[in-house]
Task: structure prediction
Amino acid sequence: MNSGFIHSIDELDNIVGLTPTEREEMENVTEKFPFRANEYYLSLIDWKDRQDPLRRIVVPDPRELKGGGCMDPSRERDYTRLPGLQHKYDQTGLLLLTDVCGGICRFCFRKRLFLKCERETIRDVSAGLEYIKAHREITNVLLTGGDPFTLETHRLGAILKELREIEHVNIIRIGSKMLAYNPYRFLTDPGLIDVLSRYSTPEKRIYIMAHFNHPREMTEVSMQAVEKLHRAGIVVVNQTPVLNEVNSDPRIFTQLFRTLSFVGVSPYYVFQCRPSLGNLLFQTPVEHSYDIIQQAWLACSGLAKRARFVMSHATGKIEVVGKTAHHVVMRYHQAADSANIGRTMIFRSNPMARWFDDYRHHATPLVSHLPVRIPKMKWMF
Result:
């Protein structure tokens, strides 16, 4: 299977055959938002079905041009300490290694990486590594972008080696949709598995933050790649947003959660789709997203329902923990200001709200409890 990149609607047309209307609509979209996919992922799509959920994930849709959203909904620029390095939460450093992905998700929250001339990712990570060395509170580092698995194996291995030489970095996370977009990346490059295995030790694991958005992405080939990673000592967990017309059905999430748990991949986060530029068609109201997840869990075991439903807001990860007929309960699962961690907020129900700001800007919380203040711990390494 050829998994090389496909960048143009011309190439897509040559592979799958588009109607003139489809081609024109897609070309109009790609004048603003770029397109990238590969033959493997395109082969999973039912091209006779214009509503196919995997098609929605990767194929340009004219509704992306209807406006709304912003370039940086989580205000990542506010937490960028150096080019390519973010430090929002005390324990976590984030390195943006590349602006290339195995495919461009139409709902990407970092579309700005593909649209702007100014680069936010870096090739030389030395300054970022020095920052991490100097900040001993950073116990885990997230490698992201773009997708780190689009990098050459030797370059990714060199970064992992340097991170493993920093004593206080215990966890390395790699955010990637490659297990869905191109699982052959893990099956045809034994050097990649060797590198990952070398730097994932019993005391300090490497975690792959997979992005399976729909159970049909979990193919036999993907499961072979997951098994290979497990045997190499890599921990694989999954995160996905709730996506309108892709997985916004409790039955789809039940199947996704169950299949993940069956193959030993822990559901980690379910995100509310961020209000990035062009993302309105993918967003469902917050309370509807919450209901989808709750209904999905009715047919799941405890192992299949470990994910938290959160919004990655500028101020932190805000978990929706419950709702009644008239109110919604939220809490800060993580926060840029550590004093807010655990803070609980109760808002009046807003069935039209698609983001935290729709609650925050239109009403103050009916109740807002801060956690009991605990003296800051002094870390000894």
User: Anything to note?
Assistant: Residues 250-262 form the longest helix (13 residues).
